[in-house]
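Working notes for the structural subgroup meeting. M.R. asked for a predicted model of this chain before we commit to crystallization trials. I am recording the input and output together here so anyone reviewing the notebook later can reproduce the run.

Input as submitted:
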Amino acid sequence: MPRWLVRPMASPGRNAEVEGLLDELRLNTVCRSAKCPNRGECFASGTATFLIMGEACTRGCRFCAVDTASPAPLDPGEPARVGEAARRMGLSHVVVTTVTRDDLPDGGAAHFVAVIEAVRDAAPSARVEVLTSDFGGQMDAVDTVAAARPDVFNHNVETVPRLYAEVRPGADYRRSLDVLARVHVTQPDLPTKSGLMVGLGETRQEVVDVLRDLRAHGVDIVTIGQYLRPSARHLPVTEFVEPSVFEWYSEQAREIGFPGVAASPFVRSSYHAGELASDAARST
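Returned structure, recorded in token form:
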């Protein structure tokens, strides 16, 4: 690892409390399932990103540590438990993401709505950010979630279009852009967000082109972080991108017109999501 990817262990903080609560309520997090490098820091500070609809994904993205398998039926008690966790953790900004559920007729849209409503019931002062799948391109499912009025609607493009077949088999770059544009058109006052990884073989120009596409499709907030290989069976890292390049990406994104930008090696979609959403709102 280059020196800029080496950092001290996070202090214990609230880690044991968060781990215990997640176990008690039988909740999954992307922090654990995706082997996020920020897990120690986030758990210590008393936050986590909830992963709903099970632990198994119906797609096989080659960057992601979440298992690909036949998923279990939806758990009808999960929304209430997410709301209870948000309340007991005292979260002011709740980020909820999901495995992709191509096996469900609506891609899990109704379940997303149930989680949004449960969080609002249990923690009414908290903002809710959703990080959704592409719902297989079903725009009625996108409409269902957007109409529930989360405070931020996030869907990640993840990488540049040239690398989709290798990095995101089963996904489609244009379809992801269409999801984001749909939310922007149908709910124009609902902030939209997307993110991508670098270090997979993309060029700087390709990243800038993606930023332009995202902004042209109405996206307000963008995140850019370093891809880190979760295991030997996943795609290798082609480049450890230097911090100065992330600074350049951030400058480019702001010049393109994004109100909210986070770009650095350890940035992930939900990393300091509440602060980023607040910064973006102040910039608009």
